[in-house]
Design brief:
This protein has one domain: Alpha/Beta hydrolase fold, catalytic domain (Rossmann fold, 3-Layer(aba) Sandwich), CATH 3.40.50. The mean pLDDT is 86. Strands 4-1-5 form a three-stranded parallel β-sheet, sandwiched between helices. Strands 2-3 form a two-stranded antiparallel ribbon. It has three helices and five strands. With 114 residues, the chain is an alpha/beta fold. A hairpin with a 5-residue loop joins strand 2 and strand 3. It is globular and about 40 Å long.
Length: 114
């Protein structure tokens, strides 16, 4: 599970510029290239958007936009549990699970895992 920082930075930034199988470089001359250090060579990756409303995530009501670190962690845990419900095959001991992030993800990760 991956969290980018921010708060408000889409985790897709990490996927498309650091972690994924391709890097999309948009500095002056847009291009893409194969990432030789891609995380998907050794693991699956769930990129979570946080807080609600960032990137492809949804903030369904005005109240959803009022957030803090604890609420974001509760939302992320709810989303993760829903994901495991939909894909129970990833609950087995053959699939160790890690939570990671960068920048403000260093706040999201310990709050959620706590």
């Amino acid at each position: 599970m991956w969290f980018n920082g921010g708060p408000g930075c889409s985790s897709l930034l990490g996927v498309f510029q650091e972690l994924g199988p391709y890097v999309i470089d948009s500095d002056n001359n847009p291009s893409q290239f194969r990432n030789p250090w891609s995380w998907n060579k050794n693991a699956s990756l769930l990129a979570f958007e946080s807080p609600a409303g960032v990137g492809w995530s949804v903030a369904g009501t005005d109240e959803d936009w009022k957030t803090n670190d604890m609420r974001s962690s509760e939302d992320a845990m709810s989303a993760l549990l829903a994901w495991f419900t939909k894909f129970p095959e990833y609950k087995t001991g053959n699939n160790p699970f890690f939570v990671s992030g960068e920048s403000y993800g260093g706040i999201y990760v310990p709050f959620m895992t706590w």
